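Researcher: I'd like a structural prediction for the single chain below. Treat it as a standalone chain; there are no partners to consider.
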Amino acid sequence: MPSLLVADDHPLFRAALRQAAMEAVADADIREAGSLDAVLAALEADAGIDLVLLDLHMPGNHGLAGLAAIRAQYPGVAVVVVSANDDPRVVRRALDHGAAGYLPKSAGLDELRDAIRAVLACEQWLPGSLRAAVARTQSDSSDADLAARLASLSPQQFRVLTLVAEGLLNKQIADRLDVQERTVKAHLSAIFERLRVRNRTQASVVLRELELADPARQLAS
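Model: Treating it as a single chain, here is the predicted structure.
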């Protein structure tokens, strides 16, 4: 029985995704989450989740950071990015960072169902309206390099990196992860080496390269 996690902070859209998932896979086990922290907690609690439908701009998720976190910490979980942003360059970046599919929020129920079925069948999925434009969009070499560097981190190292980017000190990180401070220092040394940076500030900048503007907020302002 496939297990899906619908991750979006808007209850109505979550309900639409849940309905599409139920129609796509009749016996699916479907969970919901309204923030990136809730997504990561659900994945930590249940190793059997097969697919995450991930809102690109839900609370705690700044652009592609949530996708990168899931791919680094739970590489066996497929992720379909869900967003109001249909810029082919953003779609290309999401695919380069390991997304199995990209679903615009303007998609109809038929496309939602098709996306879920395709990805559960281990296929990559894009809506027909975006395929040609994304195919013409070249990957950014620096983005591909960034994805490779982040993928080289262990799950715990990625957790440490995200906490460093939040401004936490080593002792605070150790308390948050329930490890010794020397363990955090060892992780930081490995992180600096694998990301090819020299200090905490440069490591934080690497993660901030994943940030994207939220079209909804741009319209609101």
